[in-house]
Amino acid sequence: MSRRDDSKRYYEKHKKRILQEARDRYANMTPEEKARLSERSKEKYRKNPEYRARIVAQATDRYYDNREKILSGRDKEASSQYGRDYRVKNRDAMLTIRREIEATDECKLKRHAQYIVIKALKLGELVRPDVCEDCATRCSVEVYHDSYDEDKLVDVRWLCRSCARSRALLKPHR
Fold it and tell me: What is the arithmetic mean of pLDDT over 18-30?
């Protein structure tokens, strides 16, 4: 038995107490200590792709475990109306933000790549499969570019949404 297995077993046995102690410690922290802890966590998230992937997987699992509870408690019509009202009220600010994002070179490269792929699909140079290349799930697949270099725009992967998001999270942040 390795030391790691022992610590995992100990954690599973005492999980409730350990988590409660951590919550209590956090509740007793000053705002400055909480801010420092938050910054350390963000830095770890930015620098460590494995940690980032683990956090995303945990959040995804938590969402799917609680999905019914979340969706059943939500008033869809009220939520939709709130979104419509917000977009009408803040239309100018949202358009300004959208224009700023679309003016970046990275966004222009992505739009150009999308255009090239759509053109290749229409001409029959590319064929959209119905199976994800990574997990082999039969689903509606998305185009995923590993690189936006001009000579590699049609060298794409066909991935399901979750595999594409996982790959995007493993890319280093700029």
Answer: 89
Structure tokens at 160: 């399901």
139 secondary structure, DSSP code:
S
Q: Grade residue 73 by pLDDT with cuts at 50, 70 and 90.
A: low
Handedness of CA 110, 116, 122, 125 (dihedral sign): negative
Alpha helices in 14-124 (DSSP H): 15-27, 31-47, 49-72, 76-89, 91-102, 105-123
Rounded to an integer, what distance in angstroms lies between the CA atom of residue 102 and that of residue 111? Answer: 9
The pTM of the full predicted model, rounded to 2 decimals, is 0.47
Place of tokens 């077993």: 9
- On the CB side of 112, how many CA atoms lie within 13 Å of its CA? 14
Q: Give the whole-angstrom CA distance, residue 40 versus residue 60.
A: 22
Q: And the tokens for 137?
A: 């799930």
3-state secondary structure of 173: coil
Nearest to 157 by CA among 168, 145, 166: 145
- Cα separations in angstroms, 123 against 117, 126, 151, 154: 10, 8, 18, 12
